[in-house]
Design goal:
The complex is a heterodimer of chains A (102) and B (448). Chain A has 102 residues and is an alpha/beta fold. Helices cover 45% and strands 19% of the residues of chain A. Chain A has one domain (2-101): Rossmann fold. Chain A has a 4-stranded parallel β-sheet, with helices on both faces. In chain A, strand 3, helix 3 and strand 4 form a beta-alpha-beta unit. Chain A starts with a strand and ends with a helix. A two-stranded antiparallel sheet of chain B has the order 1-2. The two termini of chain B are 17 Å apart. The chains are: A alpha/beta (102), B mainly alpha (448). At the A-B interface, helix 1 of A face helix 1, helix 16, helix 19 and helix 20 of B.
């Protein structure tokens, strides 16, 4: 599963995306993950991702990210705050899977 | 308690987030951010000449001016980078060729600058005075210099001019594109040539107009805009002005929104100007004019991340609650580098009534201690820009040119803020421990 995550600088999302990756591997999925900052999302989303996850603290930019996602035909959702920690991998992965399935 | 939370969420948050995602504000922010790699590298050279060793200072004295050149061509020329950056990003947001936007903005900005004819000015001064050899040397120097742009205007001084002019230039470009006011070339012409001809009309509009107002009517935009912004800049160094961003940033984080990003979108141009002018002043041996640049927030208030959570994380690591211990352990390493989303969303601080008072209002206390130290010269006002992810004590030291008192203030603020957190943390911990005892372990249970 290919997940692209975005937060302000690409740093806090890097931690969370690792947790999601580990959870995915635990469930036997093949994972490709990347964390970017708000400036890079628009370009990066075009590179063949299954779903885009928006960190809760930049959800005020969600509309912009979703516009980019629509153009690339990739679902983009806001993550719930509760799963935005290194311990929230399982829940985050579940949210990502649900979004990608739509 | 509820009133404050609702106030933040319903009154503060919507307009602030709306402003920060507004197209032009975003382009300005992105334009300034684009210049940051140069500013950070250039600032390293400023740090180099500030190293607090007498032997080193003696050694580099004759070379100091050469050593800080990278600083001078980065932060000292920031208006140039920003003009191009804003033009590029604003055009991109309109789906117009970004290069066209960047170049238009750059050219438009340069048109607002007045080159000085050094030779002519020197001739005026020398005039009929019988200065002999000195007069001849001066005249020769003036002739050799030719035309020169004063470096100071191209730094933060005219940055607001750069911002305004870049936006105007790209809007003219967009206007021309939308009304099809371009010179279309036949199909066989190479892309780059066709593109440059397409730019002829917008450039032909923007350059003469700016030329007319700046050089014929003689309106010095830089001076006027500085006058207009002066109240804002002065306000930023007052006690209230310094604390307003502190409050806003934490109020937004409390609602789970990236406060530094939202407030920064609007404040970044001012903050950039403040640190550049502080640096320029200190280089000349003058006191730094702006008491509370962003660096004061980064190194003395947001220690461990927004809300000054480093001490809180340490308390969590030794907590009686299993959950808090777990979150604390994964938060400590990012926390040292001032990243604290794991705590904001993990504790969680966000929308947690118990943590609201310390998180939103506590930093006002350490903001106060910082401002007092700056105002009364107890600590050197930060004048060097260093990357925000450095551990706060190190950043404080570097940003103030190795003032050891900055280290003391940073540590003092951290201890003070941790003490403020303590009772609230304990109250929350009691609640969690009771919950953990009463229920079976399940992640669902940890939601508030």
């Amino acid at each position: 599963m290919k997940i692209l995550m975005v937060c302000a600088g690409g740093m806090s999302s890097a931690m969370v995306i690792r947790a999601i990756e580990q959870e995915g591997v635990k469930q036997g999925l093949e994972m490709k993950v990347k964390a970017v900052g708000i400036y890079e999302f628009e370009d990066e989303i075009k590179n063949g991702w299954d779903v885009g996850l928006v960190a809760p603290q930049v959800r005020h930019c969600l509309a912009n990210f979703q516009k980019a996602g629509n153009e690339a035909n990739v679902p983009v959702i806001a993550m719930s705050p509760q799963c935005y920690t290194p311990l929230g991998g399982a829940r985050a992965l579940a949210e990502a899977k649900a979004a990608a399935a739509k | 308690m509820n009133f404050v939370m609702t106030f933040i969420e319903k009154v503060l948050m919507p307009p602030m987030t709306k402003i920060s995602t507004q197209r032009h504000i975003m382009a300005v922010r992105d334009g300034i951010v684009a210049s940051m790699p140069f500013v950070i590298v250039g600032s390293v050279f400023l740090i180099a000449i500030a190293l607090p060793f007498d032997a080193w200072k003696e050694f580099i004295k004759p070379y100091a001016q050469t050593i800080i050149l990278p600083y001078r061509i980065s932060l000292g020329l920031i208006s140039l980078y920003v003009a191009f950056g804003i033009g590029y990003n604003l055009a991109k947001s309109y789906k117009i060729d970004p290069l066209a936007g960047g170049i238009m903005a750059f050219g438009a900005f340069m048109m607002t600058q007045l080159p000085v004819n050094v030779g002519a000015e020197i001739s005026k001064i020398v005039g009929d005075n019988k200065l002999g050899v000195v007069g001849e040397n001066l005249t020769a120097f003036g002739d050799k210099m030719g035309l020169a742009f004063p470096l100071e205007r191209l730094g933060a001084h005219d940055m607001f001019v750069a911002i305004i002019v870049s936006i105007i230039a790209v809007e003219v470009l967009r206007f021309c594109r939308e009304r099809n006011l371009t010179i279309k070339m036949p199909d066989g012409v190479p892309e780059s040539i066709a593109r440059s001809f397409a730019l002829l009309v917008p450039v032909g509009i923007v350059i003469p107009i700016i030329w007319f107002f700046r050089h014929i009517v003689n309106i010095d935009f830089g001076v006027i805009i500085m006058l207009l912004f002066k109240p804002l800049v002065v306000a930023g160094s007052t006690y209230i002005g310094a604390l307003v961003p502190v409050f806003l940033i934490d109020a937004l984080w409390f609602c789970g929104i990236h406060g530094d990003s939202v407030v920064g979108s609007v404040a970044r141009p001012l903050w950039t100007m403040m640190i550049e002018q502080n640096g320029a002043a200190v280089l000349k041996g003058l006191p730094a004019p702006h008491l509370f640049p962003e660096q004061c927030l980064q190194w003395f208030v947001w220690i461990g991340g927004s809300g000054c959570t480093l001490g809180l994380v340490v308390m969590m690591m030794f907590s009686k609650s299993t959950y808090l211990r777990d979150i604390g352990k994964v938060s400590i390493v990012p926390g040292i580098f001032n990243i604290n989303e794991p705590v904001t969303f993990g504790l969680p601080i966000m929308y947690n009534p118990i943590m609201m008072l310390p998180f939103v209002f506590g930093p006002l206390v350490i903001g106060t201690t910082t401002w007092v130290c700056m105002k009364f010269g107890l600590v050197q006002v930060p004048y060097i820009l260093v990357a925000w992810t450095l551990p706060a004590p190190i950043g404080a030291l570097l940003s103030t040119g190795f003032d050891w008192r900055a280290l003391v203030l940073s540590m003092f603020n951290l201890c003070l803020m941790t003490a403020i957190y303590y009772p609230f943390f304990k109250a929350y911990e009691r609640k969690l421990v009771a919950d953990e005892k009463a229920a079976a372990t399940s992640t669902e249970h940890y939601q508030l």
